[in-house]
Amino acid sequence: MKFRASPGRSAIAGLALSSLALGSAAAAPLLVIDARSGEVLVEHDAARPWYPASLTKLVTVYAALKAVRQGRITLDTPLVVSVRASRMPASKMGFRPGQEVTLDNALKMLMVKSANDLAVTIAEGVGGSVESFAGEMNKVAAELGMRESHFVNPNGLHNPAHVSSARDMATIGRALYRDFPDHSDLYGIGALQFGGRIIPTHNGIMGRYPGAEGMKTGFVCASGFNVVASATRGGRRLIAVVMGYPNAKSRTIKAASLFDEGFSAASTGMQVSALPAIGGGAPDVRAEVCGRNRRTVSEDDFAVPVAGYTAPASQAENDSPAFFFANDGRPPQGSTSRAASITAEQMAVRPWFDPVPVYVGRAPGWTGPVAAARDSASATARSKPVTATAYAAKTSERNGPLAADPEAVPMKRSGAKAKEQKPVTTASRESDGHKAKTAAKTKPDPKAKKTAEAKPAIGKKPKSQEP
Questions:
Q1: Which of the four, 67, 73, 347, 447, has the lowest number of CB atoms within 10 Å?
Q2: Superfamily name with CATH number, domain 7-358
Q3: Is 114 assigned a catalytic role?
Q4: What are the boundaries of each domain within the chain?
Q5: How far apart (Å, rounded) are the C-alpha atoms in residues 95 and 272?
Q6: Catalytic residue among 24, 57, 82, 216
Q7: Integer Rg of the chain from CA
Q8: With helix as H, strand as E and coil as C, how does the chain read?
Q9: Dihedral over Cα of 68, 74, 75, 80: its sign
Q10: Annotated catalytic, 57?
Q11: Residue 16 to residue 217: CA distance in whole angstroms
């Protein structure tokens, strides 16, 4: 179904823009590029610094996949949720400190749920700390030519020093498809299944615009509603970036209109890397988007199941992505939501996404690099003749865990507390032999002999019954 341009849709887009203050609407960055060539097709203030919010997580994914490619970590590596990660505000999975989740599952939850706690878990698991991983993110940004970007955290929670631009966000989106094509499914998951929960994507354009593939949304009050979206038509992939919009609905409508414009645009000959810098600091649109009397909201503060959905009472809830998804873009009767409704003519009905299963815990059969190295060393040792040195090493391994192996666990002995084992030496052998000879020369106790004759050992017949 082709997304048709119409006067009604233009009016809706105009209404969406008018809900922002005039100054902010004029500055809201917009960009469409060809993902293969990097050619700019539509652009408005794309190099203006802007707070990226959760669009940041595209850089987190890139840095993590780069670490996998370098062999520093695997997708099955279990990451441990720290206290710091567990204290992140929503949106989050809410895992407890000490729980484990594989990098693969963490990345999926990061992209769909936009989980701030798992962004920190990934950062600590890959980089050792949030600060170290932020350094890796900035290195990625520099390598890709993201000139306006500076990152201080892996999730995009607001920090005045944490900035980017529409140009840079299109650059990282393009780089993900170009450099990690085998992971392209990660950028377009429509829903997750975690136990009995179904977690839908925040990306409202998925399933509603023909050819829409995915990417990432982002929102904090200071940035407004942002999205990096991708769509394919006739084998051609475009990446659109919308930043600074007042709600999820207007963000989705604008992204759809940008794709329409981009797929029909003539060549400009301008490369995304050549867009000139605008300069200045990132504007804070908190007053326009959230207002002084509206509390700070996250992308899924009002997440509710689709079945049996009850329309929220507050303005903030009516503008939330959860409201948009649950009602297919149609506000409840009598609603005063600022966002205009979306009709079937203007946007395809959102389909049901087959959820991708995720879980908490280690991957089945995971042994870990330490155990794998130990198994490999054992196999190599079995193929070689046993020497005195190898025998001593094997004895040491059997008697206790290797200090360098955190996964090894000593076997417990039944009965009384095991005595400390001492190494066997020539002197100890001679000493033991001397004790044995001394015991043999010692005269036996007559009472012990009578007791032994009266009570034969279990399993042996008394002498009187032997043939």
A1: 447
A2: DD-peptidase/beta-lactamase superfamily (3.40.710.10)
A3: yes
A4: 7-358
A5: 39
A6: 57
A7: 33
A8: CCCCCCHHHHHHHHHHHHCCCHHHHHHCCEEEEECCCCEEEEEECCCCCECCHHHHHHHHHHHHHHHHHCCCCCCCCEEECCHHHHCCCCCCCCCCCCCEEEHHHHHHHHHHHCCHHHHHHHHHHHHCCHHHHHHHHHHHHHHHCCCCCECCCCCCCCCCCCEECHHHHHHHHHHHHHHCHHHHHHHHCCEEEECCEEEECCCCCCCCCCCEEEEEEEEECCCEEEEEEEEEECCEEEEEEEEEECCHHHHHHHHHHHHHHHHHCCCCCCEHHHCCCCCCCCCCCHHHHCCCCCCCCCCCCCCCCCCCCCCCCCHHHHCCHHHHHHCCCCCCCCCCCCCCCCCCCCCCCCCCCCCEEECCECCCCCCHHHHHHHHHHHHHHHCCCCCHHHHHHHHHHHHCCCCCCCCCCCCCCCCCCCCCCCCCCHHHHHHHHHHHHHHHHCCCCHHHHHHHHHCCCCCCCCHHHCC
A9: negative
A10: yes
A11: 17
Residue with tokens 């970590």: 73
Specify which residues 30 forms β-bridges with: 44, 242
**In this structure, what token pair is assigned to residue 355?**
């959820």
Residue with tokens 């060539």: 37
pLDDT in tens, the chain (467 residues): 233 333 333 333 333 333 343 344 446 899 999 999 999 999 999 999 999 999 999 999 999 999 999 999 999 999 999 999 999 999 999 999 999 999 999 999 999 999 999 999 999 999 999 999 999 999 999 999 999 999 999 999 999 999 999 999 999 999 999 999 999 999 999 999 999 899 999 898 998 888 999 999 999 999 999 999 999 999 999 999 999 998 888 899 999 999 999 999 988 899 999 999 998 999 999 988 887 545 444 454 333 333 333 333 443 333 344 444 444 333 333 333 333 333 444 444 667 788 999 999 999 988 876 544 444 444 444 444 444 444 445 444 444 433 333 333 333 333 444 444 444 444 554 555 555 555 555 555 555 555 445 454 444 444 434 33
Q: Which of 54, 86, 149, 165 is catalytic?
A: 54
Active-site residue identified among 91, 114, 165, 250: 114
Place of tokens 């062999």: 71
Would residue 447 show up in a list of annotated catalytic residues for this protein?
A: no
